[in-house]
């Protein structure tokens, strides 16, 4: 079963606040509901020209039959790909200190996650 979380703009529209995690570990994603605010805490992501090949290689490694794991990289990439659907999502993540990229444009980041 596939769950749809919405992109960053959708989450922002319903009042979910974004915050950067203190670490870069993909497992450090937290969703916390409070009395006054709901927060989605995401680890910092750095995207550069090696990100696509790095993610694809890690995903391939997770798919190896002898590798016992929880598919953390696959889950992280799929979740991040759902959050990033357009350049506005990338800009919002950058403004919160969650995403840094060294590509030519925010559109390239969107394309990267669509490719993966």
Automatic annotation (TrEMBL):
UniProt-recorded name of the protein: DUF247 domain protein
Pfam families: DUF247 (PF03140)
Domain of life: Eukaryota
InterPro entries: DUF247_pln (IPR004158)
Organism: Trifolium medium
């Amino acid at each position: 079963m596939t769950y749809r979380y919405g992109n960053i703009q959708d989450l922002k529209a319903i009042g979910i606040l974004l915050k950067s995690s203190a670490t870069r570990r993909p497992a450090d994603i937290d969703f916390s509901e409070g009395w006054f605010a709901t927060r989605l805490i995401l680890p910092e992501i750095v995207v550069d020209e090696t990100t696509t090949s790095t993610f694809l290689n890690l995903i391939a490694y997770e798919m190896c039959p002898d590798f016992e794991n929880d598919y953390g990289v696959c889950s992280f990439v799929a979740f991040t790909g759902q959050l990033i659907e357009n350049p506005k999502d990338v800009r919002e993540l950058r403004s919160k200190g969650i995403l840094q990229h060294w590509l030519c444009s925010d559109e390239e980041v969107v394309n990267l996650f669509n490719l993966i």
